[in-house]
Amino acid sequence: MPNDFFQFQQFRIEQSACAMKVSTDACLLGAAADLTGATRLLDIGTGTGLLALMAAQRNARVEIEAVEIEAAAAAQAAANAAASPWAARLRIHGLSLADYAATQPAPFSHIVCNPPFFRQSLRSPDAGRTTARHEAADTLSFEALAAGAAELLEPVGLLTVLLPPPEMHEFEQVAAAMELRPATRLVVRHRPGSRPLRHITGFRRGATRAVETEMTIRMAEDDTVYSAEFRALLAGFYLAL
Fold first, then answer.
1. Is 83 helix (H, G, I), strand (E, B) or coil?
2. Residues 6 or more apart from 48 whose CB is under 8 A from it?
3. Among the residues of 45-141, which ranges form H helices?
4. Cα–Cα distance between 199 and 167 in angstroms, integer?
5. Would you call 36 exposed, middle or buried from its count of C-beta atoms within 10 A (0-12, 13-18, 19+)?
6. How far is Cα 115 from Cα 140, in angstroms, rounded to an integer?
7. Are 148 and 97 in contact (CB under 8 A)?
8. According to CATH, what is the number of the domain 5-178+228-234?
9. Which residues of 195-213 are buried (b: 16+ CB within 10 A; e: fewer)?
10. Alpha-carbon distance 155 to 176, whole Å?
11. pLDDT tens per residue, range 203-238
């Protein structure tokens, strides 16, 4: 059974009310997203509030808003934000992306999202987990994410998304229709030489070619040990690496 909380160095994530718990995926996205020049950041589908809190820790100047359609998760994310050192810069909205966009918020310099992506796999009997992990027409489709980001980003804004490679390829095609194209791509592997597990891709208007880098999570010679690059990336967050 997952713990009801996850303790980071500077904040604590309570997660008993959230279908999707703290994961390595989310931690990687929160630590790797390029926050250079960030002034206003939107976290779409915040869940526990993890990405919003990681952004607040990493950038002392950015104002952060987050949306979460599941009421219980939104309430827990708001409580996590309120208990953090950065409560004054964090606002959690219990709304869908479409309903939030209808409030006509000011444009964002940065948007981050770890979207639903298990569209072809068996659905979980846990309805909350299904909503969080599977794309559905009434939650957050790739089309809705790309269109919402295009609407809410500043002209030179950055959208950063984490997906498995096949789903990322599909999302890139959808985003291109909104004139958002890959500018950066971090390829994440479990260990050196293994197949890519995730892509963390930054999208911008006008991008013509993605700058690609790679990292591994574990050491080649010992699957129980984090790689040096993973430890360096998460050094400011995990209690022990």
1. coil
2. 13, 14, 15, 18, 20, 21, 22, 73, 76, 77, 80
3. 50-58, 71-82, 97-101, 127-133
4. 9
5. exposed
6. 7
7. yes
8. 3.40.50.150
9. eebbbbbbbbbebeebeee
10. 15
11. 999 999 999 999 999 998 788 899 999 999 999 999
The length of the chain in residues reads 241
Q: Which residues does 135 contact at the CB level (< 8 Å), separation at least 6?
A: 115, 116, 117, 118, 119, 141, 142
Element (H, E) at 122: none
Q: Could you identify the residue written with the tokens 């703290």?
A: 22
Q: What is the pLDDT of residues 79-121, one digit of tens each?
A: 999 999 999 999 999 999 999 999 999 999 999 999 987 544 3
Sign of CA pseudo-dihedral 23, 145, 35, 92: negative
Domain limits, the chain: 5-178+228-234
Q: How many CA atoms lie within 13 A of 130 on its CB side?
A: 11
**What distance in Å separates the CA atoms of residue 118 and residue 135, rounded to the nearest whole number?**
7
Amino acid at 88: A
3-state helix vs strand vs coil in the chain, percent to 5: 30, 25, 40
Grouping H, G, I as helix, E, B as strand and the rest as coil, residue 211 is: strand
